[in-house]
TrEMBL record:
Residue ranges annotated for the UvrD-like helicase ATP-binding domain, each copy included: 186-550
Domain of life: Bacteria
A Pfam family: UvrD-helicase
Originating organism: Paenibacillus tritici
Protein name: UvrD-helicase domain-containing protein
Sections of the chain in a coiled coil: 2-63
Taxonomic lineage of the native organism: Bacteria, Bacillati, Bacillota, Bacilli, Bacillales
Gene3D superfamilies: P-loop containing nucleotide triphosphate hydrolases
Alphabetized UniProt keyword annotations: ATP-binding, Coiled coil, Helicase, Hydrolase, Nucleotide-binding
InterPro entries (UniProt xref): DNA_helicase_UvrD/REP, P-loop_NTPase, UvrD-like_ATP-bd, UvrD-like_helicase_C
Binding site for ATP: G207, V208, A209, G210, S211, G212, K213, T214
Length: 734
């Protein structure tokens, strides 16, 4: 075994040296070629491609590849060792094998989809299905040109030719810094299917916590750019994520994959830009505190909860029919007369509006009609009998034209939205009353807020839709692809509106219903989104394996899900074992802290931090139930720890180190160790929603999870299995 390993290592070291020599000599040659600065187009294109190659090779020199796959196609005479890296590199001389194959290339898909066994394997190539045998799947870790590790995950010639998880487990065991990373060397089969799925589908992915949803979505973008080079561009792709800090947290992955320029935004930021409005900054945190700060007192969520109703397709239909109604009654009553004796009959105006300009959206139609009316006035002016009459008619005509234009409906989204809710005094009697479909409670609250000038996040999809109905999507570029992360917090209406701004229903929609802590506005079932698309334009995938946390943490969190939420979406862990989850009562204060006489909760948190600090974790989080508690705790801890950060709703940069934050803001993030302060029934009630919050908190931990409590444990936490233990660990060194 040891000998095999030695020879594999030697073999890879030799190959690495050869590859580096080849890269260096190509790079040297390219660098010594004079840079073309002339005006010849063909030469410019060649220069661009040389420059790209210079950049690729310079990057590749550090870590040329990460995997090797030995494959022999049925039509081939011998087996070939294919080296797979983040960037593909062809050889100088035309040869049948590139120096490095891009991970996104068709043949590289075998590296991910091959699940072991002795049967033939196959992959889709542009020329058709290629079948053959896989002989070896090997992971190689190269850092700064040094070969650090060689691990065979499959060897056809060994006694047990199954794909092993050993390398994956090694990778998952590493500590994390403050950024999400690429996973090209260990993408799993179920993830690869999503990454390589066809472009023109609304892919909906339900994935348990830590199943790699965010990571997979980013890799999918890189794949789409490679596979559909001619049809998509990075500038026309967009990622929607829950907040700006999260966007910062994921911002390294795409550049690592050699992809730049993809827009990243939150839905409110994007919507506000399209609408040209400014949203008050405090809205999100105000809403959050309304729903999250009062433990146990959460209002009941029904289809009449404002966020749910305003995110529904019911409101979408209401808006559509209201705008239609407005459109049909848009042309002002009566004929148009610019001065006495000249009359443009309403019939004529109606014909322009209802027939000739019918294909245009309302705002454009009005524009066209008014332009034509203006031209008509000019023609009529030419018939003036004298210069004095012309002058008089010009003046009158201009005034009446202006007055006539003002009689049309105000084609502004907010004005129309207010009219639909009857929250504005308008000259038009439209609509006669607020539509019956709007629940009275929603109507009342919305009218109150709109009158005060308050706009909420949930008002954005209706406003955008009105904007679209009025103007079409002219002037707004349509996207080639849209990624929506944490999509369980999105509403069907939001997705339906975004569908108007993307070509070919090309979506990657990812989320986890078990983490649906914003159920007052998000979906409760994925079918709410699936039914927005015709069956041939949507596909559903479920990711059930969780890669983030140790087995102990996953089993523990699964317990919360099944007992507290009654969910069947349980995570399947990778076989990575760690320390048991710790449940610690404040009462059980460490002797030295008790002696110091500080408050028990604070001492417990401090003791936990002290103990964990010996374990060299790079990111640690203390999660509280509310933002208020996080702020208070942060104030107590700040003077005692370096690199400590309070994360509230306004933070835009995630800095790692020691973070103190409310549990609801931790969604999407991960930390080497998590301390859940206040993990008791005083802070987390018995409701499913509280259990979901607790589940989100627990599943943020990679290696270590400690729950500290003042009172009783919530009912869904039971100390049964081996995954959790009570009390403090023995001091290190005992
Ligand atoms: N195939 C893989 N190989 C190595 N690491 C992986 C793999 N898949 C996921 N991971 C790691 O698992 C962690 C969780 O990934 P990610 O944050 O993308 O999951 P998620 O499903 O979006 O999680 P959540 O819903 O809990 O926020 C990350 O550290 C990621 O690097």
């Amino acid at each position: 075994m040891e000998d095999n390993f030695q020879s594999a290592y030697q073999e890879e070291e030799d190959r690495l040296n050869r590859a580096l020599t080849e890269i260096d000599s190509t790079l040297e040659r390219l660098r010594s070629t004079p840079v073309y600065t002339g005006h010849d187009y063909t030469e410019q294109v060649l220069e661009d491609s040389r420059e790209q190659r210079r950049k690729d090779l310079a990057k590749l020199r550090q870590e040329p590849y990460f995997g090797r796959l030995d494959f022999q196609g049925n039509d081939e005479e011998d087996r070939k060792a294919l080296y797979i890296g983040k960037i593909g590199v062809d050889r100088e001389q035309v040869s049948d094998r590139p120096l490095v194959i891009d991970w996104r290339a068709p043949v590289a898909s075998l590296f991910y989809s091959f699940t072991g066994g002795t049967e033939a394997a196959s992959y889709e190539a542009p020329e058709g299905l290629i079948e053959g045998l896989v002989y070896l799947k090997r992971n190689v870790v190269i850092r700064k040109q040094i070969l650090e590790r060689v691990a065979d995950t499959y060897n056809r010639d060994s006694d047990a030719p199954a794909v092993s998880d050993e390398f994956l487990v090694y990778r998952l065991g590493e500590n994390k810094d403050n950024r999400l990373r690429d996973i090209v060397s260990t993408i799993q089969e179920e993830q690869d299917k999503i990454i390589r799925a066809a472009k023109n589908t609304a892919l909906i992915i339900q994935g348990v916590a830590g199943s790699g949803k965010t990571t997979v979505a980013l890799h999918r973008l890189a794949f789409l750019l490679y596979q559909y080079k001619e049809q998509v561009s990075a500038e026309k792709m967009i990622i929607f994520a829950p907040n700006r800090m999260f966007l910062d947290y994921i911002s390294d992955v795409l550049p690592e994959l050699g992809v730049g320029n993809i827009a990243q935004s939150t839905f409110p930021d994007w919507a506000a830009e399209v609408l040209g409005v400014t949203l008050p900054e405090q809205d999100a945190s105000e809403v959050m505190s309304r729903w999250f700060e009062a433990a146990g007192a959460m209002p009941v969520i029904t289809e009449e909860t404002p966020g749910r109703f305003k995110g529904s397709t019911v409101l979408m239909s209401v808006i559509e029919s209201s705008v239609k109604l407005l459109e049909t009654s848009a042309v002002p009553e009566g004929d148009f007369s610019p001065w006495e004796g000249a009359v443009l009959p309403r019939e004529m105006i109606l014909r322009w509006h209802n027939e000739e300009y019918a294909p245009y959206p309302p705002a454009k139609r009005k524009e066209r009609v008014m332009a034509r009316l203006h031209r008509w006035i000019e023609m009529e002016l030419k018939k003036s009998p004298s210069a004095a009459a012309l002058k008089d008619r010009k003046k009158k005509g201009a005034a009446r034209e202006k007055a006539y234009s003002a009689k049309w409906p105000k084609y502004e989204p907010l004005a129309i939205y207010k009219q639909i809710f009857r929250a504005a005094k308008t000259p038009e009697d439209w609509p006669a009353a607020a539509p019956d479909e709007i629940p009275p409670a929603v109507l009342k609250e919305t009218v109150k807020e709109l009158k005060k000038g308050i706009l909420r996040e949930e008002d954005l999809p209706p406003l955008l839709y009105i904007h679209y109905l009025l103007n079409g999507n002219e002037g707004t570029e349509r996207f080639d692809h849209i990624v929506i992360d944490e999509a369980q917090d999105f509403s069907p209406f939001q997705i339906a509106v975004l569908d108007l701004y993307v070509k070919g229903h090309s979506f990657t929609i990812l989320g986890d219903l078990s983490q649906g802590i914003h159920a007052y506005k998000g979906v409760h079932e994925w079918t709410e989104m699936q039914t927005l698309f015709a069956a041939e334009y949507t596909a559903y995938h479920a990711l059930t394996r969780s890669y983030r946390s140790t087995m102990e943490i996953i089993e523990f969190a699964n317990g919360i899900l099944s007992a507290g939420v009654g969910s069947e979406l349980l995570a399947v862990p990778v076989f990575r074992s760690g320390n048991p989850v710790r449940l610690i009562a404040y009462e059980d204060v460490q002797p030295e802290a008790a002696a110091a006489g500080t408050d028990k909760r604070l001492s417990a948190v401090k003791s936990a931090l002290t103990m964990l600090s010996g374990r060299e974790y790079r990111t640690v989080a203390v999660l509280t139930r509310s933002l208020r508690e996080a702020s208070l705790l942060y104030a107590e801890l700040a003077g005692h720890y370096e690199d400590i950060h309070l994360i509230d709703g306004s933070i835009t940069e995630y800095r790692g180190g020691l973070s103190v934050l409310p549990v609801y803001l931790s969604k999407g993030l991960e930390f080497d160790a998590v301390i859940l302060a206040d993990a008791d029934s005083d802070h987390y009630g018995a409701a499913a929603w509280d259990a979901k919050l607790m589940y989100v908190g627990c599943t943020r931990a990679l290696h270590e999870l400690w729950l500290l409590r003042g009172g009783e444990l919530p009912p869904y936490i039971q100390l049964q299995g081996e995954e959790a233990v009570s009390g403090w660990p023995e001091p290190e060194g005992n």
